[in-house]
Specification:
Order of helices and strands: EEEEEEE
Largest sheet: 5 strands, antiparallel
Structural class: mainly beta
Strand order of the largest sheet: 1-2-7-4-5
Helix content: under 10%
Strand content: over 45%
Number of strands: 7
Number of helices: 0
Radius of gyration: 14 Å
Length: about 90
C-alpha cells in the first residue's frame, strides 16, 4: 500500500488481468495502470463506495452496493479516479 491505496493483481482464466484496489483515504484518488497486456477496447469496473460508517438497513438497503460500468482500455492503460472509501475491481481483457 501507498498513500491510502492498497492493490493486488492476478490473471483470470481467460488471460486477462484483474486488479483490486482499495482507497482507504478521505479523498478521491486518480490512478493510472499500465498492463503488460496491451489490449485496447472495453474493460469492466466494479466499484463499491460509501461513507466510512455507511451500512445497509431496512430503511436504506442500497447504501452500500456494487456498481458495474464499462471502462476504456487503450494499449493496456487504464486511467480512473477512485472514490474515497472505496473498493474497485478492474477487469482488463486479454
Amino acid at each position: 500500500g501507498q498513500d491510502d491505496l492498497f492493490a493486488s493483481a492476478a490473471l483470470d482464466d481467460d488471460g486477462g488481468v484483474i486488479v483490486k484496489i482499495v482507497n482507504a483515504g478521505e479523498k478521491a484518488a486518480p490512478i493510472r495502470i499500465a498492463s503488460t497486456i496491451k489490449t485496447t477496447g472495453r474493460g469492466r469496473a466494479t466499484v463499491i463506495a460509501a461513507a466510512s460508517m455507511a451500512e445497509n438497513s431496512l430503511a436504506s438497503p442500497d447504501a452500500v452496493r456494487p456498481v458495474e460500468e464499462d471502462m476504456a482500455v487503450a494499449g493496456g492503460i487504464v486511467e480512473r479516479t477512485l472514490p474515497a472509501h472505496s473498493l474497485t475491481v478492474l477487469r482488463i481483457p486479454k
